[in-house]
Amino acid sequence: MNIYNTLIQRFTSRQAVIGIVGLGYVGLPLMLRFQAAGFRVLGIDIDQNKVEKLSSGETYIEHISSEKIRTALQRGFEATTNFSRATEADALILCVPTPLNKNREPDLSYVTGTVEGLAPHLRPGQVLSLESTTYPGTTEEELLPRIEKFGLKVGVDFFLVYSPEREDPGNKDFNPGNIPKVIGGYTSACLEVGTALYSGAIERLVPVSSTGAAEMTKLLENIFRSVNIALVNELKVLCLRMGIDIHEVIRAAATKPFGFMPFYPGPGLGGHCIPIDPFYLTFKAREYDISTRFIELAGEINAAMPYFVVQRVMEALNEQGQALKGAKVLVLGAAYKKNVDDDRESPSYKLMELLSAKGAKVSYNDPHISSLRPGRKYNFGLVCTPLTEANLNQADCVLIATDHDAYDPAFILQHARLIVDPRNLFADISDTFGKVFKA
After folding, report:
1. Do residues 46 and 26 make contact, with C-beta atoms less than 8 angstroms apart?
2. CB–CB of 324/312 below 8 Å?
3. Which of 52, 123, 175, 363 is deepest in the core (most CB within 10 A)?
4. Which of left, alpha, beta for 153 (phi over 0: left; psi -120 to 50: alpha)?
């Protein structure tokens, strides 16, 4: 039996060892899914703290319980920082970050650095799958030569695929097992091996003709969202000027049973996908002398939203006869979306930066985030302020940055003196006593 058939047989029989490289919001749920499907899983991460926590049965992601980690350990899961152990795996799935640099250009250093770290330990009879969002051509242009440099022939004795993650933290309806998974291979043999890998753990696969098509699919999904969110953000500003409630308009339009999909405005974009991924395509498009004007305009509109919200805070305080400088502003929500502890690219941080720059005294509350960890852009050094009657009342302005279900609108309305609400948290309250300013 040749390498190709042997590898497929190992996936089909669930004898294969699955290596997950990068144990964050994408990699950790994927590890649990493959293990639940009956595979032995090896986790690899450069973060020693993560590895130690997992090895002791602790979690660091709120919606993944420590009990699930302990069960995984009992069933054979191991976590390590040792890249040389990659040789034990039949499949290596890369789930590492793909951020933007300070010039808003793709930063592939995590991807290329990980592949270079793994490459000396790769062997014939393995498949490598990249799940990180990136521009079309990355798998072929960046991964392929780094692998073949070590004497492996991709498509013959080693297999290469791209299969973008579709993780949605906090979404209880979908998980890595029931979200349809797009997959593209460098060759037809690569696609068949990759299909064998994922079919053992994922309910539905969506094969496409190439790794480039799979890479573009992921970008289209997020660009679609970015453009439509920008549209409603722009209309929100217009509706505020016209005295029209944009949320009422969206609710009414959403009753149309065809041709309309509701998107909702907010204080800015957050998460690892929508604020970042579109710019991967704008970067690549320049190589072909194409200007992606829709993408760039949407980015401009969405990036302007925190500035608009801070302007609304200033206007709201002015109506109370108070300046923003020196005002106490309590920001509710540091996570980028409701009911999660994920603060990647959260607009809350930009809001806090802008408010602080204008002299406001900023504090925050988030039931899911106990302190603001230092990041690539921000280091506020703040700990969560308890959401008490006194703290709400002492704030000159309460800014709703994230509409967590844990926030009781009636309680906040009763005890806050002034509220700026970009999230429509008080939509179901008929009388807000003039305290709430839309933003």
Report:
1. no
2. no
3. 363
4. beta
Q: What is the pTM of this model?
A: 0.93
Buried b (16+ CB within 10 A) or exposed e, 386-413: ebeeebbeebbbbbbbbbbeebebeebb
The rounded distance, in Å, linking the Cα atoms of 215 and 137 is 8
The 8-class DSSP code of residue 257 comes to S
* Whether the Cβ atoms of residue 391 and residue 382 lie closer than 8 Å to each other: no
Give 384-402 as a DSSP string. PPP--HHHHHH-SEEEE-S
- Please check whether the two domains, 3-209 and 225-438, share a CATH topology: yes
Beta bridge partners of 126: 158
Superfamily of domain 225-438: NAD(P)-binding Rossmann-like Domain (3.40.50.720)
What six digits make up the tokens of 250? 């969206």
* Amino acid of residue 392: L
Contacts of 422 (CB under 8 A, 6+ apart): 265, 266, 267, 305, 309, 312, 399, 400, 401, 438, 439
Q: Which two tokens stand for residue 212?
A: 């480039």
Contact (CB, 8 A) for 201 and 37: yes
3-class secondary-structure state, position 214? helix
Taking alpha carbons only, the member of 60, 63, 29, 62 closest to residue 43 is: 29
| Cβ–Cβ < 8 Å for 240, 265 | no
Which residues are annotated as catalytic?
Answer: 273
Binned at pLDDT 50, 70 and 90, residue 375 comes out as confident
d(CA 385, CA 401): 15
pLDDT at 404: 97
Cα torsion for 234, 236, 241, 242, to the nearest 10°?
110
pLDDT digits (tens, 9 = 90+) for 180-238: 999 999 999 999 999 999 999 999 999 999 999 999 999 999 999 999 999 999 999 99
Q: In the numeric block, which tokens belong to residue 221?
A: 């999904």
pLDDT of res. 377: 77
Q: Which two tokens stand for residue 220?
A: 């289209």
Structure token pair of residue 111:
């991807």
Q: Is the dihedral of CA 421, 425, 431, 432 positive or negative?
A: negative
- Of the CA atoms within 13 Å of residue 50, those in its CB half-sphere come to 17
Domain positions in the chain:
3-209, 225-438
Confidence at residue 1, expressed as pLDDT on a 0 to 100 scale: 63
The architecture in CATH of the region 3-209 reads 3-Layer(aba) Sandwich (3.40)
Average pLDDT, the chain: 95
